[in-house]
Amino acid sequence: RRRVLSGIQPTSDSFHLGNYLGAVRQWVELQDEFDAFYFIPDMHALTVQFDPSVLADRTRMSVAQLLAVGVDPARSTVYVQSHVPEIAQLTWVLNCITGFGEASRMTQFKDKAAKQGVESSSVGLFTYPILMAADILAFQVDQVPVGEDQRQHLELTRDLAQRFNKRFGKAFTVPQAYIVKEFAKIYDLQNPTAKMSKSAETDKGLINLLDDPKRSAKKIRSAVTDTGSEVAFDPENKPGVSNLLTIQSALSGVEVADLVAKYEGKGYGDLKVETADVLSDFVTPLRGRVDEYLADPAYLDGILADGAARARSVASATLRDVYDKVGFLAPS
Ligand code: TYM
């Protein structure tokens, strides 16, 4: 069976709407058709400022959210990155076939390093995309469902796979990014030309799935809209309104065109109120399910133990092949 893999960082208590619509929702759909691997990249969470006292809890909360949105551990392999040491081992080999200049061109690194100053950025932040390449290449993956901001990292992953295969013999499947255009970039409600992100200056434009829906409704009501009063889908001239239409459409299953027709003769106020209602209908049961999973940490840990065992069996086969191909002496 063809394989799909993706990850979401445990850098916050809650997934945000961009994470969900841009990526995680697709994970749920793809697990029917693919052999699916979904994981929490806790090693990636160390590449920026992190708090050791909350990381384990956030890792469990991330798993609880994955299950609550419909990732099914009976069909998908669900695991934590640091439980699969073969990933870090493979990263070293990939580090050694990545050009320094090539890594320096990663725009996410440049953005993050510029924000916090290059001098105070870690080497981990610099090699982050290579760890991500190992996450993927260790598992012989066909498709990687992500948002637009991960596209360049996927390109690097493909380049490294092709380079290794050519230089040392075929060890890796060359993966493809699976990016759904309509949802590849959900925008900040206050700044609808920037992506929704937990590292934005304020969280006023950020919708967290686990927040009280009343709080999110307030944020939606004060979302920046556009001049004019007509509800139209026009991302270029009406980015704020278009973003709300995208969100409401995704959560309700009603086509954007049908929403636009429905709002004919109505104003932005109706669009906002109804978008908030649709969000509330979605997150209210979700929050309940997350709480139920969190109340049973032994169940979650059992899923992660099974997931790590399956993940290690796949990753260790790749690693053994890679070690042979680069000429490491096998331990006796
Ligand atoms: P992360 O944890 O930042 O985000 C998880 C997923 O959410 C997507 N995303 C968005 N999509 C649409 N609109 C937005 N505003 C938005 N914000 C975030 C991201 O594109 C991502 O798909 N490096 C990855 C995690 C990772 C990974 C991997 C992914 C580590 N190893 C291997 C795939 C395969 C990251 O930081 O995603």
UniProtKB/TrEMBL annotation:
Residues holding ATP: Q9, P10, T11, G18, N19, G147, E148, D149, I186, K195, M196, S197, K198, S199
The keyword Ligase appears for this protein: yes
Gene3D superfamilies in UniProt: HUPs, Tyrosyl-Transfer RNA Synthetase
Keyword terms, alphabetized: Aminoacyl-tRNA synthetase, ATP-binding, Cytoplasm, Ligase, Nucleotide-binding, Protein biosynthesis
Primary site of residence: cytoplasm
EC number: 6.1.1.2
Keyword ATP-binding carried by entry: yes
InterPro entries in UniProt: aa-tRNA-synth_I_CS, aa-tRNA-synth_Ic, Rossmann-like_a/b/a_fold, Trp-tRNA-ligase, Trp-tRNA-ligase_bac-type, Trp-tRNA_synthetase
Pfam families assigned: tRNA-synt_1b (PF00579)
Ligand binding (L-tryptophan): D135
Subcellular location, record wording: Cytoplasm
Motif ('KMSKS' region): 195-199
Reactions the enzyme catalyzes: tRNA(Trp) + L-tryptophan + ATP = L-tryptophyl-tRNA(Trp) + AMP + diphosphate + H(+)
Family, per entry: Belongs to the class-I aminoacyl-tRNA synthetase family.
Role of this protein: Catalyzes the attachment of tryptophan to tRNA(Trp).
Family annotation (NCBIfam families): trpS
Complexes and interactors: Homodimer.
PANTHER family in the cross-refs: TRYPTOPHAN--TRNA LIGASE, MITOCHONDRIAL
The protein's name in its UniProt record: Tryptophan--tRNA ligase
Gene: trpS
